Amino acid sequence: MGSHPCCVLPIVVGVGTIIMFFVCYVIAVNNNHTVRNFPFISDTGVYPPESGIFTMALNLSAFGGLVLMYLRYCYISQCDGPAKLNKFTLGCGVLVCLGLMMVGAFQWATMLYPHMVGAVMAFALGIVYIWLDTIISYKLRPLSTGIWAFRIRLLVSTLATVSGGVMFVFGGIIFSTDNYLYEVRLAAVGGEWALGIGLLLYIITLCAEIRTVKRIAVIMDISGRFDVSNSHELRASRVFANRDLIPE
Question: Which residues form the CWH43-like N-terminal domain (predicted)?
């Protein structure tokens, strides 16, 4: 039995979102909606038609990311990973996806503060998520996570954190004053693009484990089959990898 089709989900989410960024950039520049020289990511999705593509793509990315993070959560559970840390990591991932949807729904030119809240959720909690997942990868190595997968994630997490620090520091300067040097803006924009791409590259590395998934099953406990109410309780979703263990 080969790998489950979900093994391509990390690539679809990661590569697809990166392509979307550049498609919106090209459309925005061709319509003179943003500067050609290195705009912020959000600058490429302010005006139509690119704003519609930007919003739809981020919503799809958020949905795909949410599905992927839940699959990751189930995989770690089946591999006897740290339960509390795994649940906390999933919670951070849900907030990251919510922030991503807010960024797409609220353009900064018309609704700045909701847009900024979503950006902080997506970027700051995104850094938290990848570090937590890197820690889990360290705990699961070498049986459930390859040593090279862990090393790549550690490198990507470090570079993303540095990029995020640059973005937040210089972006804060831009946000707080109108008198700033061009180099300050360049540093903030570069940090944002590097962080965004870094987070997506981390998502792509999850292929290392997701490709071992053979099947996905939803297990239901049916209570009161002959009852009038005939209530159904969803117990759990299970991800079956290359092992016989199915955690309760």
Answer: 6-212
